Amino acid sequence: MSGRSLSEISEDERASFAVDLVAAARRFLGFLRLVAASHWLHRKPALLDAVRRYDQLWMPLISDLTTEQRPPMILPPLDVEWIKYKNYCESRFSKPIGKAAIFDEENEDYAVERCREIWESRFPTEPFENKADVDENVCSSSSSSSSSSPSTNIEGSNDCLLQQVLVHRDLCKGFREPYYSEMVYLVAAKQRYKAFIYMVHRFGDESSSLVPTSDILLMWITHKSYPTMYAMDCKNLDNNMEKIIVLRDTVKEEDVEETKMLWDRTFDQPYEKAGGAAVIAQPTVNEPPFYWDTTDIDVNTKYKSLMPRFLFEVCLSIKVTSNIRPGKRDPSREFLRLRTMKCHRELKLDLPLSCFTSKSWQKAWHLYCEFGTKGLIVELRYRGGRFSKGSSLLESVSFSWNDVLRAQTLTLGKEIDGRLRIMVSITPPVQGPYLLKCVSDRATDDSGAMISDVILKMNHYRPQEGRWLSRTVLDHAGRECFVVRMRVGEGFWRRGGEVPRAVNSKDRVIEIREGSWSYVVGSTSIGRSSGNVVGTATPKEAREGFQASWNLSTGHELLIQRDTSKPFPALRFDVVNESTEPSLKLLQGRQLQYGLDEKESNNDDDEFATLVRVSDENPMGKATGVLNWKLLVVEIQPEEDAVTALLLCHSILRSVSEMKREDVGGLLVRRRVKEAKIGDRDWGSVIVHPSSSSFVSSSPYVGRPWYRDANRVMALQEKDGSMGHPQNSWNYSQTEGGEKLYKTLISN
Q1: Average pLDDT over residues 724-744
Q2: Which of 15, 119, 504, 636 is the most exposed place for a label (fewest CB within 10 A)?
Q3: Residue 182 clears pLDDT 80, i.e. is over it
Q4: pTM for the full model?
Q5: Interatomic CA distance for residues 464 and 460, integer angstroms
Q6: Domains plus CATH for the chain?
């Protein structure tokens, strides 16, 4: 059998579908997110009641309304739609019960309302919406029985149906990455599903079991959810479709390898790709190593200086060509090196050539990259002689993200040195969490201008009034987006004895100004901050039982307690919400989605806090960010407000410094530490999936999110690779107010 590329399959050979699978899959994903957010539906009482409503109410109703295998344009309530099971329908009613193809929101609302009218007319004592109180022993809707639906032992009569629903509950987890809903991804998934159908039809007899990838599984499940259309589309496939392993089946490694080999022989391409790993029993194996949430909300668009961060998954597969001629070079010294075009130029991931064969495609690297990296470069290199540590470049190929996005199924292949074939696949770029870090900067006056002789001269030598500690907030790409200032003193500095004096503790406010510094002409380090104040935190008298209290302009009050009775004093936070929805909670340490594995060290966990939002959709709370208040580093999801997170971070650092009466985290530093050159080793630009563990990396932190090894990762952001703040070696200008003035910030 000779391999054919996907593009070489003619239209006549490709499967055609009676349903728009792209639109249907997008609706299906939205439905899964709705089910995942409906926590009441996952409790056993509500689930049992949903099975009863499906079995005794919905199925007789939809069977009566279905004529000539054409379903009516109605949609059932949420709990009933979640229970649908095609085989059960056929076995009971001797005919497949179809589903209306409704994909737009307007028609969907109409179909639900139309179903409500029919439902309430036929079952007047049964509520249409099953808002079951899962804390009760009996669901609310089951308390009223319909005359046409006598009660039965649900667990006994529909055990198979109930078990099927419990299995499919994992679907909500299997498709939670945000790229699944992107149109470009779904179009590519449909093309691969067509190719899969072609393979099953032509060569399905050569395999006993077929394991789908996640993108193919998505299309297959969506296709099957329209039973009549699925039966018509697959009528010529004999029984080969029954070989596809479904979710409830146990997946064997040999079945996965057999499917990979069949795909390889059919299309001469790697079966698994970015966003399309083989579906196995442990879905967590293919999960991203960081928290990547799906949300349509970005509350930070109001900050024009804050640019979104786009991420995507990348897979590189390599296969040795079969026509290799023996060369003069020693093959044991040849290796491949992976680099990025931008953002992380110091990155070097090496793999020996011996890792690859001509028998099958091998996954070389599995990454997550920022779109700003622009692309990848794969180099074939030759290691030097016995006494040489370097290597020489033999040949290289590059893959631009824009080129891969335009390629069929988001996969692009190239050859290197006529000996190796390289296939790069990506998922569509989608918005990821914001990454913000605060770096120390010069002290400023009340107007926001840095204390400097340059500014003094521009002001015609009029003394600069007021003194503020200042921090510059940089995003993931090193761009300045906010300036954080903490008020310390008032008054002027004049030659002859007049110096700024410390302000009262209640006046030591923290403010955040939007935008970057406006640097004076001819300088890259002296400038003014914008006058647009977007947030403030004001200290107030602490409540009973707490050592510190802050009023935030975002409508929250932060309460901080430090328990010194324990050998290792622990912090506790309370956030009082003033009628804000969703309400905010602050948990000490890395928790929920930011929690550490059991094997990871949590020695620095007391420096972290997790932001959690509680709402009607998430009554148990949802992690929306994590911060390290000592390093002043913040990661937030788009739905969390950046200014709120920055205010919390600085308020905690200020309070802990005051409680301990020491400079924690370099709070009093008044010079910017020299940073690594932008683009050399940008944090978060490349994260390697744990499955790519065999590579040799020159960068010690690309395989882990920053919050798993914060001190090491953030140290590499500085030019000298050290997180130390040697303020004692700096000669601060007397015009800034002197060291004694700034120490009042932590001494009283």
Answers
A1: 76
A2: 504
A3: yes
A4: 0.89
A5: 11
A6: 21-174 (no CATH), 179-222+232-286 (no CATH), 308-322+329-431 (2.60.40.150), 434-673+725-747 (no CATH)
